[in-house]
Write a structure and sequence with these properties.
By secondary structure, the chain is mainly β. It has one helix and 33 strands. The protein has one helix at residues 3-14; strands at 28-39, 42-50, 62-68, 75-81, 88-96, 112-119, 130-136, 144-145, 161-168, 173-180, 183-189, 196-201, 213-223, 226-238, 257-265, 270-272, 283-284, 292-296, 307-312, 327-328, 335-342, 345-352, 360-371, 386-393, 399-407, 410-417, 422-426, 442-446, 453-461, 464-469, 474-479, 488-494, 498-508. The strands form seven sheets. It has a six-stranded antiparallel sheet with strand order 23-33-24-29-30-31, with no helix packed on it. Strand 9 (161-168) and strand 10 (173-180) form a beta hairpin. The radius of gyration is 23 Å and the shape is globular. It starts with a helix and ends in a 9-residue tail after the last strand. The structure holds beta-D-fructofuranose (FRU). Residues 31-32, 48, 61, 90-91, 117, 161-162, 214-215, 239, 293 line the site of beta-D-fructofuranose.
Length: 517
Amino acid sequence: MSSRKESENIIFFENRYRPQLHYSPKKNWMNDPNGMVYYEGEYHLFYQHTPHDTKPDFGRMHWGHAISKDLVHWEELPPAILPGEDGAIFSGSAVVDTNNTSGFFNENGSGLVAIYTNDGNSAQNGKPQVQSIAYSRDKGRTWTKYEGNPVLFPMKTLDFRDPKVFWHDESSMWVMVLAVKDRVEFYISPNLKEWSYASEFGSDIAGIHRGVFECPDLIQIQVDEKPDVTKWILILSVGDRNGVNPSDPEPPAGGSGMMYFIGNFDGRSFTPDDTLESLDAIKWIDYGSDFYAAVTWDGIPKEDGRKIWVGWMNNWRYASTLPSKEWRGHMSIPREIQLKTYPEGIRLIQVPISELSQLRRPIISLQDITIKPGSNVLSEISTAKAEIIAEFEIGTAEEFGFKVRTSANQETIIGYSILKEELFVDRTKSNDIDFHPDFAAKHKAPMKPEHERIQLSIYVDWSSVEVFGNKGKAIVSDMIFPDLESRGLELYTLGGELKVVSLQINDLVSIWGNESV
Ligand code: FRU
């Protein structure tokens, strides 16, 4: 790294609450991840960004831009797509146009095409949201808006946004999944410029319309890693405003959240495996408050084959009031999505990507120990960021877990209640909580022991915790704002002894290259 970059990163690194393991822009506002695409050795991460303000300026939303070679270390580039007469640049996706179906590239050449929502175009009567495209011939560094924009107008509603596009091999067509208020709509196109309506999903499913739908995704994925068994997952983010039916259930931690449906897609329409009547139990992606608008990377080579995403680690309920100063908003760690069969059916699980292991600096490793109430085997450890990987055997304890980022009067509890069969994060004493009345809370995920064991993988950073229970089956992602000096760690048990089968704690080196290792 050049010395200019190093010193820039040191200033950046010193900001209070600045995530050390997660992407955040150096300055100002960020929300949804956009345009996730892998192309010629680089992962692109675009995102909703107002480069001039720490609050969301919806009238002047840009696509911010960062690139990475390993999904772990990121380089921020200048904003990629800027608002103009066409309106603000809202969320969307990007694809590799391998066969030049769009005609934007040289014969036999390929390039990137971004598909996004224009919001508030002043020339449009009633200012509906419309879909537009832009292309890049230089690996995403510069973008040209298509002169024929917009490429798709709404038929009815003003909520018509967040196109996620992918190439559907079987039908040799581009497919767009779009959030349209209380439904998703599917459109198809041979060339990314002309789109025709195919079908819709969700308007008639009772109980899922608490908030307006946003940022959908549709992915095909193997079940239990068997190449010949695949399913489609339809993913939906549900906003915290403009609810169609406010009496429908809130996401588990309140505000905005994400749900999913498993089924099949034939190139035109999505059919869920569950019958509509049995869709009464919504499948939630994350039981914490802060994982939203996650969408997957396009273009990951077939040899790799993983489905990877990041989410915006935030919640619309309080997003613009966060106590960070120089910037607002950060992404989750990248996670791999898998489908796994359990006794109750197929479920989506998420696991931290294996690339994160390069950051590990082992602190402690323990096997087969029994701990008693009132003791703390981790009292010597002091760290403001960590990876904790642990497996426990259900014994006589009623509750156990970790207290992280502790000091005399601060703690965040990551626990498991054996009595209630619940994984939880309690951030009520995590320090800076007063910026919104709903922030101080305990978030719970239902989770049963598997073979009498509980497995936890936990990522602690300067301003967040991400908890993956039972190898990614139950997830709680929450922001926290402790003092940097709150670095204590505790392993506790209540009501009885706890058998620790294995426990490994690693420091994770800052991804910004500003820490002496
Ligand atoms: C989701 C969202 C999108 C919209 C964008 C605007 O968080 O509301 O629906 O495109 O943010 O920034």
